[in-house]
């Protein structure tokens, strides 16, 4: 059996390692061949970019060589896919190599896109890209006061980030001794300050304590770069001296170019994680069209399901698990405290008061992540 | 001819039905209709409110067997 993994980010790496460990004997015996194709030889811990943007981690802390994270038996090539030929069970890479497969896992992720909001790229800072995180830290470090506006595009990965960014901005300026010179304004696309009701309920008094102004029903339309005004689809506007953006996202261009999914979002069964219409293709992480959080934890829990099922299908002919929608998110608050949100398709999260121990757990996980990527945690 | 596209956001908490609808509307063509399926009772108020704010068209909004079927049209 040939198992092909397309995408070497968080989800792709965890699931490939999961399968390689489960089928290690079969790989050694030549009964299973595992291949991973990626666009890069580096593996980035994306949640770390938030900490880079606030000067709490360095770029070197959040990157490893991809090959160093992979189980023996995984054939790894830095040669991204350009063409998917699902009807023939094969892909063609940028290097012109054709890989055929018996089972395919697509974990190509998604990316921030600025073209949907004119002026956003020129006017904003963001912790969502490597260049953006580095630049944002410099802007924050040099900022002397004024209006700071947080704007949120739809859709985006890491749904808790808008809240965390705002908390961290408040704390950053407090520690710099200029919080009284900063007007912190938060905007959000729907009728409350976060899409999860329990989080919104918890965060409103926190915003009030931190003197954060907030406006709901604010979907970015365009940014007047010269006059530093961001306009909304709803007809309102926000002036700013510093604009911090959670940019809108799209699935990778290769997905849309190959007609695998509108907007780069692949139609996926929410329980089996199979691509609709293709029983031997699994979709993992951000690139699915599932109406669930685009987070690393989602990809992690999906990896466990797909990994078990691929191994089970090879050995018994049938799958044994379903994905229940599980997501787990740390939520950084301020004062070195954090809380968390754990939910699935049925049970909403219950938000507890932030604690220092939960913050320490998140700080620890920032290091444990590399064991998660190896499929060990 | 525009077709009605279904956005199935039943039993989801994050990003939630309205965020899913906003994502879909961004990619839709003018004239497209969308039917949002939601088990979140808040959607019955939030969606019409947002549609009115941005100037799209509400077609229908009804609850059938614990699921809200909210049909909207992109008009600009």
CA-to-CA gap between the ends of chain A? 26 Å
**Uncertain spans of chain B:** none
| % residues in beta strands of chain B | 25-35%
Which structural class do the helices and strands of chain B define? alpha+beta
The CATH class of chain B is Alpha Beta
Mean pLDDT of chain A, to the nearest integer, reads 96
Helical fraction of chain B equals: 25-40%
pLDDT averaged residue by residue of chain B: 91
At CATH's second level, what is the architecture of chain B?
2-Layer Sandwich
CATH topology of the largest domain in chain A: FAD/NAD(P)-binding domain
Number of domains of chain A: 2
Number of strands of chain A: 23
Q: How do the helices and strands follow one another from N- to C-terminus of chain B?
A: EHEHEE
Order of strands side by side in the largest beta sheet of chain A? 5-2-1-9-21-20
Number of strands of chain B: 4
Q: At the fourth CATH level, what is the homologous superfamily of chain B?
A: TusA-like domain
CA-based gyration radius of chain A: 21 Å
State the major sheet of chain B.
Answer: 4 strands, mixed
CATH top level assignment of the largest domain in chain A: Alpha Beta
Terminal-residue CA separation of chain B: 16 Å
Task: Write a brief caption for the model.
Chain A has 377 residues and is α/β, with parallel strands linked by helices.
Topology:
The complex is a heterodimer of chains A (377) and B (76).
Chain A: E1 2-6, H1 10-22, H2 24-28, E2 33-38, E3 42-44, H3 48-53, E4 63-65, E5 74-78, E6 81-85, E7 90-93, E8 98-100, E9 103-106, E10 110-112, H4 120-123, E11 124-125, H5 130-142, E12 146-152, H6 161-175, E13 182-187, H7 197-209, E14 212-215, E15 220-224, E16 229-232, E17 237-239, E18 242-246, E19 249-251, H8 253-257, E20 274-275, E21 278-283, H9 296-316, E22 327-332, E23 338-343, H10 356-373
Parallel strand pairs in A: 1-2, 1-9, 2-5, 9-21, 11-18, 12-13, 12-18, 13-14
Antiparallel strand pairs in A: 3-4, 6-7, 7-8, 10-19, 15-16, 16-17, 20-21, 22-23
Chain B: E1 4-8, H1 17-27, E2 33-38, H2 43-54, E3 57-64, E4 67-73
Parallel strand pairs in B: 1-2
Antiparallel strand pairs in B: 2-4, 3-4
